[in-house]
Amino acid sequence: MRLSPPFQWRLLVVVVMALTVRMVNGGEYFKAYNVSYDHRALKIDGQRRILISAGIHYPRATPQMWPHLIAKSKEGGADVIQTYVFWSGHEPARGQYNFEGRYDLVKFVQLVGASGLYLHLRIGPYVCAEWNFGGFPVWLRDIPGIVFRTDNEPFKAEMRRFVKKIVDVMREASLFSWQGGPIIMLQIENEYGDVESSYGQKGKDYVKWAAKMAVGLEAGVPWVMCKQTDAPEYIIDACNGYYCDGFKPNSNNKPVLWTENWDGWYTTWGGRLPHRPVEDLAFAVARFYQRGGSFQNYYMFFGGTNFGRTSGGPNYVTSYDYDAPIDEYGLISQPKWGHLKDLHAAIKLCEPALVAAESAQYIKLGSMQEAHVYRNNGSICSAFLANIDEHKASTVQFHGQSYTLPPWSVSILPDCINTIFNTAKVGAQTSIKGVDIKAMASAKSATNELYMIQKEKPLVSESWMTLKEPIGVWGADNFTVQGILEHLNVTKDRSDYLWYITRVYVSEGDIAYWKENVVSPTLTIDSMRDIVRIFINGQLIGSSKGDWVKVVQQVHFKQGYNDLMLLSQTVGLQNYGAFIEKDGAGFKGQITLTGFKNGDVNLTHSPWTYQVGLKGEFLKLYATDDNGSSGWTNLAKDEVPSIFSWYKTYFDSPFGKDPVILDMSSMGKGQAWVNGHHIGRYWTLVAPKNGCQETCDYRGSYNSDKCTTNCGKPTQTWYHVPRSWLQPSDNLLVLFEETGGDPFEISVKTVSVGTVCGHMSEDSYPPVHMWSSSYINGRLPASQMKPVMELQCEDGFTIASIEFASYGTPQGSCQAFSTGNCHAPTSSSILSKACKGRNSCNVEVSNSIFGDPCPRTVKTLAVKARCEPSSASTLWYTGLSEV
Ligand code: GAL
Fold it and tell me: Which of 169, 414, 772, 870 makes a 20 to 30 Å CA pair with 455?
């Protein structure tokens, strides 16, 4: 049989993967090596290393995505992958371990090793991480006498058992460095220093115990504790934050490690979307290595998705994109990824000098300018020149030469002479992701969004079925007790939902009293989280949301007995703070009715009936083996949106291999499943109208409110459906909708990079990767090197057309370039010739290519190119693989 070229390729990929797997099963990725450290750096087999680490949380992606994510991290310059370990996923019920699927930690670590990268495993087991309950399994609350994260025997026993389990699993799979595996470092606890004082002396004792317990497991690699100033001598205390230059560990024998560099931030339902500008991020990283740092991890390099009910709280969204260099779907985000790649390459060229020197030579260059010079006794010398002035550029003298430093920037000079990189000068391309490449072509008018809005809507389906969720009690397992029970004590977090139902008697006198006084009674709940929906006699009369907020709701009753039904809902359990096991959920304090004729009615101690969860959840309406006989009816197109409804349909997968999303902007709040996989909670809660910035100024200290977008729009409307969860056709989509929405408007789309742009001046630095050691050692004249614009579409895509090109004084940015007074007329044809039909292309930015359209003016080249799938790749159906 003759295979068409793409299939030949796929066969090759399969063969290579099979070989890799064999190697993986053999256990050894590296020759066994040992890891130690001194005051300057981690040491691999005695050799100090300057390391760059990329944070990826394995359950926030699928195993099919892992190889690609690891490869893109490596290509972006990472030496190390860092992950937490997610206890709640690995031990869903006490003593029942799960290391399958997205929780196949061994496979993840093996893949990291097979790609030649190291791994930093942060076991915690408290991880925070915007993960449900900070990573703790919810059953842990029920261990008698337990108090989390303190000197408490029941807690310590459980914690030790789990940490030991993980160390044992890693050891059995030969994944530690001394076994030839990738694990070079571990972590115990997480930012305990933030909460330690809440636990008094017991907190201090717990730190000592945790450290000793961890080291006692004899894993054979160093352990860190982050944000732990009282970490014992044998544990490295590390820094977390937006900036960690100037951080000093608590002993002179420990290296300076930065376990979490927050390169973006997480998002709350109804919140704006945070973005951290890459110029500031690169500045923070360069400053860190400049001032003696030796290990830095991006939290996150890939953020991913909080599938199922794994997102933490209060109220974190399903997407954990984090504005990371690799986006939620696994696509690289430009210019973030590319600029960091250049930065990493520049830092790596300095590594020999950085590790040779015991410390830097400090040179003050100005009031807000400084140099740190690293050299050994011989000829190696590397320097970092910083301008920490937030406003002004500065020209400084260094070693007899002058250097101009943009505001809030660092220049990197691997040879102490040539600047090969400045953190504020972005040479990397910008890319604009679009949905559905076919629709993209017609969507000529770019919006100000990162993503382009498409014109036509590929609806997920024309035919839907529906089923009503009962309001109130639905199952035999309901029970009635006196008083208000704490939500989690009842649900054990098996569901977000818990019904609280009681009866209220209203007399004729009450009704008359309300009429006379033109008042209605009021329900007051002292304190509530995260959502309550209030029903009377089956009718929804109001909802509230918040984090331990008071609820005051006017109610209407009929005469006689009334059913008051409160649906308490969690939207991600608390993941940060002291005593999270005591925080709980649902209601606190009193529940009262005021305004009755004979005075207030206190319901706090009344009999309440409890029903955990939804009927549909417990019937598993979302499962693929549901036989369809359970009462589904056809949904008419003009049917009014209804609350508390289940919807289902079948849809075909989009062709190609681009990531798939569901656009749920027509819906309210609920949860969605595809082929039985829980893709997460959805909610079209809208971000505040104000507080977003028109333009984002990278200069000055970043905080998560600084460069936000998406004001006045729903926080999240796109929901990632991993390709490996799809089959070519008849994919079952099931939704539970709480507040009403239009499923007919739900669409399925693919996301891809539709446009790439470059913007570069003729006095930019040449690409970092062109600086070979021959230039740096002065054997070749660096002046021969010119800036080069590099453009690249995603794999499988080619540049179909050049939509804009101007060498001269073009204006604007990728969304809307325009030519200025000076413009080389050959710009477009030169770019077309160099780029059209190719996946990537390079064009030198100089007069020698374009001619000089305006002498004595510094010229820039601006280019906007459209990427389209190469013809071969459109034929691929890769529904079963992301790689
Ligand atoms: C840190 C914490 C991480 C994560 C981060 C915010 O304080 O250690 O787990 O929660 O904040 O994204």
Answer: 870
Nearest CA, atom 10, ligand 1: 129
State whether the beta carbon of 684 lies less than 6 angstroms from ligand 1. Answer: no
Cα–Cα distance list, 344 to 5, 16, 296, 381, 399 (Å): 36, 28, 11, 18, 24
Pair 215, 1: CB distance under 8 Å:
no
Our count of domains for the chain comes to: 5
**CATH code for the domain in which residue 419 is found:** 2.60.40
The parent domain of residue 681 ranges over 452-467+619-686+705-749
The first and second tokens of residue 574, run together, are: 């608390």
- Cα of 128 vs centre of ligand 1, distance in Å, is 6
Q: Distance from the CA of 717 to the center of ligand 1, in angstroms?
A: 24
> CA nearest 255: which of 238, 243, 240, 230?
238
CATH number at residue 744: 2.60.120.260
Same domain, 110 and 158: yes
> How many angstroms does the Cα of residue 299 sit away from the middle of ligand 1?
8
Cα–Cα distances in angstroms (integers) from residue 871 to residues 431, 434, 737, in the given order: 21, 19, 40
Atom of ligand 1 nearest to the CA of 134: 9
Within a domain: 695: no
The residues assigned a catalytic role are: 191, 260
Instruction: Find out whether the beta carbon of 195 lies less than 6 Å from any atom of ligand 1.
Output: no
Q: Would you tell me how many other CB atoms lie within 10 Å of the CB of residue 828?
A: 17
Alpha helices in 547-613 (DSSP H): 580-583
Strand partners, 535: 540, 565
Q: Residue 769: its pLDDT value, please? A: 87
* pLDDT value for 782: 77
Same domain? For 170 and 263 the reply is yes
728, 773: one domain: no
Distance of alpha carbon 317 from alpha carbon 301, whole angstroms: 18
Of ligand 1's atoms, which has the minimum distance to the CA of residue 191? 8
Residue of 823, 825, 863, 826 lying closest to 841 (CA atoms): 863
Residues 531 and 493 in one domain: yes
- DSSP per-residue string spanning 769-806: GG--HHHHTTSS-GGG---EEEEEPPTTEEEEEEEEEE
With a 6 Å cutoff on the Cβ, whether 240 touches ligand 1 is yes
CA distance 596 to 594: 6
Q: Work out the number of other CB atoms within 10 angstroms of the CB of residue 340.
A: 24
> Which residues, at least 6 apart from 291, have a Cβ–Cβ distance to it below 8 Å?
245, 246, 360, 372
The CATH number that applies at residue 443 is: 2.60.120.740
Kindly report the pTM of this predicted structure: 0.93
Which atom of ligand 1 is nearest the CA belonging to 128? 9
pLDDT < 50 positions in the chain: 1-26, 437-456, 872-883
User: Does 190 contact ligand 1 (Cβ within 6 A)?
Assistant: yes
CB 529 within 8 A of CB 516: no
SS3 assignment, position 675: coil
In the reported structure, the alpha carbon of residue 60 is separated from the centroid of ligand 1 by a whole-number distance in angstroms of 15
| CB < 8 Å & 24+ apart, contacts of 359-365 | 359/40, 359/292, 360/290, 360/291, 360/292, 363/398, 365/396, 365/397, 365/398
Ligand 1 atom closest to the CA of 300, numbered from 1 = 12
* pLDDT tens for each residue of 761-811: 999 999 998 887 777 777 777 778 889 999 999 988 999 999 999 999 999
The whole-angstrom separation of Cα 636 and Cα 467 is 12
Q: How far is the CA of 397 from the centre of ligand 1 (A)?
A: 40
Pairing of strands 660-663, 747-761: antiparallel
Residue 510: per-residue pLDDT: 95
Q: Tell me the one-letter amino acid at 91.
A: E
Q: Please tell me the distance from the alpha carbon of residue 525 to that of residue 564, in angstroms, as a whole number.
A: 13
From 261, 299, 322, give the residue whose CB has the most ligand 1 atoms within 8 Å, as the site to mutate: 299
Same domain, 346 and 378: yes
Smallest CA separation from ligand 1 atom 9, residue: 129
Assess contact for 570 and 440: CB atoms under 8 A.
Answer: no
